[in-house]
Design brief:
Layout lengths: L1 H21 L3 E8 L4 H20 L3 E8 L2 H14 L3 E4 L4 H13 L3 E5 L11 E5 L1 H16 L3 E7 L4 H14 L5 E8 L4 H14 L5 E3 L3 H14 L6 E3 L5 H8 L8 E2 L5 H13 L16 E4 L3 E2 L15
Parallel strand pairs: 1-2, 1-3, 3-4, 4-5, 5-11, 6-7, 6-8, 8-9
Antiparallel strand pairs: 10-12
Helix pairs in contact: 2-10, 3-4, 5-6, 7-8
Length: 323
Amino acid sequence: MKYGVVMAILIILVLSSLTIAQEKTYHIGVAVPAADHGWTGGVIWWAQKAIREWQERDPNLTFTLVTAHNPSEQVAQVKTLMTKGIDALVLLPHESGPLTPIAEEARKKGIFVVCVDRGLLRETAYDVYLAGDNPGLGRMAGEQMAKLLGGKGKIVVIEGLPTQINTERVEGFKEIISQYPDIEILAIQTGYWQRDKSFATMQTLLQKFDRIDAVWAGDDDALLGALQAIKLAKRQDIKFIFGAGGMKEVVKMIMDGDPMVPITITYPPSMIASSISVAVKAIKNEPLFPEFYQNSIPSKIILACEVVNRENAARYYFPDSVY
């Protein structure tokens, strides 16, 4: 009898331990900038979408999403997430410098860190870096500009925030345009990737130059601001303008055949959703894809850019998105 009781207790303990193992929970923190322009608004929308879908698939996953208006606020938010106890951190840095030490601290505590879009200063600050191909975006924009202009014309560039991302894009663009001696870059002025500031910048450029054949805005928000200035000035010399990002308003203009906006280039805010998926797979020790034969997730994932034109625009149109 005593032997039977002992065996029963052992069986109960084993079953209990299996249940506990099966019910292991994971907490993932997601820290991104506040929606200061369209693209970051899209980032938040895609983050929320990914979180909902993962929680529907696995109730043992818990997420905390925080947004920050400046780097110091984001540092404080990450520290709070670490205090609460997270298994992974998905971080789109407000600025690289201030966020690098706190991300390194997170890794030292055993937290899996996925850095998104804006890189951190040292590779010791993240396990995985996932971003769009910024140099490739610039080169692709240059190629499309040359193609649409037939290899000659006068152009202006409205660049973004003074960041490494912006530098990579503009340098890639200039690299391609330098191969076309009949294309002249009249000016490169900043619009900070914002609609109102790009509107003001474009007004200044229109006053300065009597002839502009085309504009690369570098961002779809900037495109809309610059286009408003062009229309207000009733300038007929400008043949077209295009940006980058894949904003739904711009994609719809392309779908509808707006002659002033023939293309855009993807830089998808959905990369935050992909980064969340990478974090989930990593902490659960699951392969990134069922057919992915490597045991570990790559430390760097760069998303290729794509040209959106009238023929394929419907594939890139997400009317329910905020971006």
